[in-house]
Amino acid sequence: MIKNRLPSISTLFLSLLFFCNGHAQEKLYPNTFDLNQITLLEGPFKTARDLNIEVLLQYDMDRLLAPYRKEAGLEPKAPAYPNWEGLDGHVGGHYLSAMAMNYAATGNEECKRRMDYMVEELKLCQQANAKNNPEWGVGYAGGFPNSDKLWSTFKKGDFSIYFSSWAPWYNLHKTYAGLRDAWLYGDNEEAKAIFLNFCDWGIGLTSKLTDEQIQEMLDMEHGGINESYVDAYQISGDKKYLEAAKRFSHNDLLDPLSKGIDNLDNMHANTQIPKFVGFERIAELEDAQNYGDASTFFWETVVNNRTLAFGGNSRKEHFASVASSIDYVNNIDGPETCNTYNMLKLTEDLFRMHPEAKYVDYYEKALYNHILSTQHPVHGGYIYFTSARPRHYRVYSAPNEAMWCCVGTGMENHGKYNQFIYTKAKDSLFLNLFVPSELDWEEKGIQVKQETDFPYAETSKVTITEGNSEFELLLRYPNWVAKGAFSITINGKTFAHSETPSSYVSINRKWKKGDVVEVSFPMTNHIEHLPNVPQYIAFFHGPILLGAKTGTEDLEGLIADDSRFGQYASGEQLPVDKAPILIDDNLETIADKLNPIQGKPLHYTLNVKMVNPKNLELEPFYQIHDARYMMYWLALSESGYKGYLDSLSNIEKKKLDLERRTVDYVATGEQQPESDHYMEETHSNSGNSNDDFWREASDEGYFSYKMATGSESNLNLLVRYWGFEWGQRKFDIYVDNEKLATVDNTKKYNISQFKQETYPIPESLLKEKEFVRVKFVAHPNSSSSAVYDVRLVRPN
Q1: 700-726 b/e with 16+ CB inside 10 Å = b?
Q2: What is the DSSP letter of 369?
Q3: Helix ranges (DSSP H) in 209-356
Q4: Predicted local confidence at residue 691, as pLDDT
Q5: How far is CA 466 from the centre of its chain?
Q6: Is 35 exposed, middle or buried (0-12, 13-18, 19+ CB in 10 A)?
Q7: pLDDT of residue 13
């Protein structure tokens, strides 16, 4: 039914592309109601939105604006925020967006005052850049550190400073978006002028670069800069911006994904998602099928193959391959909030052109289980990583402290909860989300009130409170409601339909004031498997992920400080094998063994045989804070559990066998073992991670150990590495100054597990020697891998 509506939606869309005189958001998104047309009523989203405004108003605008003034040659009015130095200015753009959105959604005058103040300051900075940096800065409104050195050389095609900087275009994209949003949501015309001038700066800056140089430039994270230029085209109607958007589109992603080729394994996830937001926006504005195909296929493969139970994706900020999906269990840094923020943007864009329920099914899951869960319910702090590791926890930001990317997107997330509850297409009204709210559809003279206690109730009541008009009401039939279970009454009379889960039920009639539509959507329990690791399961009631608090021990850094890596939950990683393990021979019906707790809606006990049993209570994951938790559970059959124990036994046997074969062993990074082996080093360092010590060298540095051979000449060198490392990892291994191996571990494993490599040692290097010196030497502009231990071992 919905697919048959697409031509009429496209026709409507094209007629509204440019210079729309409707509500603010219709200027860019013609299916969307203005935020001030939708009022949130009491419920979890209104509570979160109001708390977020309180938090936002604690930030110091002059500190956020300091990088912009500094780069423009103006005296900052306050010191810039620390933390994430080198990316100064990125949060300021997010903050401007948040002020505009919250003003539009609530009419909060302080938000408007702050929005207007920031726009005026950015106007001054843009004017100062034109005066103080005439060779490269006309139109520039960014706050990127060392802008003068960066952009003056970049404009000439010299990328040396660009590639040694931290994602310049990513940084600028936040300011582009903030200025656009100040106009889009806040009707600030000066913001529009600054935005378009800033876009002109980017076009001029890159005008002499070849297409090859542009693609080389795009190898670095650049946010949704192509989206910004599409927006400029739609705002102005000037095709130069559309051409710029295409030029800023990364072919390494556009070409394969448009052909249905998934090349995302181990790519940095949030580098990629905004690119596809831009691709889809390009597809909206002209007949560019490859852009639309790429964004559609990307959404499908990420949502269906790479998304966790709560709607997030990535581990260690990268998309997992099939083989590395176990990292979700082994690692502490699960999906980051920014990823889901951008996936929701992409979902809204795709739905605008293809209004299918599957997009809203995903949107709802991610909204409740990820976005809503990333705000602390008392102090309002934001969350970066949501770990899926059993019995780990999450860390929160504090106002005026951390300046992470997920603080920036977090500022926006909670200000637009009303944005996608309802959408429209000509004479049709889509009711997408079951959220207590009121809609003022001014064009139709219709006001609608939705009353629901979802997810604590299985019904929603929709009342026409004002007006009379003929239109089509489309009610989402969610994918989590059983076939035949979605029931509707109109003014007390049953409305018959034949739709199935993940669709829309169409009601086309002349509506009048007082009409009441009541919807019933029974919620049942079910499980979802961890992508590519099916023995780990998560429990749901309807679309709501259920988790369990497991304790509050060692929540180190629960509220982050201003350190560079304060976003990591650095407390003890509790052993995965000591977490509760569920034993059941019919896992597909295990959700039926959730027992409701009387008087506590959406709280359950689990009546399942359990290893490492604990008296745990399942509850909505979005309500779990300040605690360790279970999101995924290892669930095995009786025979599967026996196999699991046998596997542990085999691992133990291998450990013992290795010990028997070992002639000498260095626990690298530990003081006494390194001293015992007469370590020599230069440009090396050591540390502790993954519950073990390591040492590495960098940029032609080295470290070496004197190791005993036991006078044996048939030995191998066994080196243990960590399988997921950043940057270039190229180095040589020497035995007594004879090169044994040249190693390139750069992106070799891409899995968060220890990896052992064996290097056979020629007999000539060992013969008649009681000791040899084993040396690791980093290549120029590279580092060795972090070495966790070194062994001389007998062959198997």
Answers
A1: ebbbbbebebeeeeebbbbbbbbbbbe
A2: I
A3: 211-217, 225-236, 239-247, 251-258, 269-285, 289-305, 327-330, 337-353
A4: 67
A5: 40
A6: buried
A7: 45
Question: Mean pLDDT of all residues in the chain?
Answer: 94
Locus of tokens 């085999």: 650
Question: Among residues 257, 447, 283, 253, which one has the least CA distance to residue 349?
Answer: 283
Supply the pLDDT for residue 25.
79
CA–CA separation, 451 vs 463, rounded Å? 8
CA 662/CA 665 separation, integer angstroms: 7
Q: Measure the CA–CA gap between 210 and 15, rounded to whole angstroms.
A: 35
Distance of CA 663 to the CA centre of its chain: 46
DSSP conformation class of 80:
P
d(CA 453, CA 451): 7
Amino acid identity for residue 90 in this structure: H
Structure tokens at 518: 């009541």
Radius of gyration, alpha carbons of the chain: 29
Query: What is the phi-psi region of residue 430: left when phi exceeds 0, alpha when psi lies from -120 to 50, beta otherwise?
Result: beta
For residue 326, what are its two tokens? 């176990």
Residues of the chain with pLDDT under 50: 1-22
Helices (H) and strands (E) in the chain, counts: 21, 30
Tokens of 781: 């502009």
Question: What tokens does 25 get?
Answer: 């958001």
Predicted pLDDT of residue 19:
42
pLDDT of residue 2: 35
3-state class of 734 per DSSP?
A: strand
Sorted by where each starts, the structural domains of the chain and their CATH numbers stand as 3-420 (1.50.10), 424-452+459-520 (2.60.40), 661-793 (2.60.120.260)
**CA quadruple 114, 115, 118, 124: dihedral sign:** negative
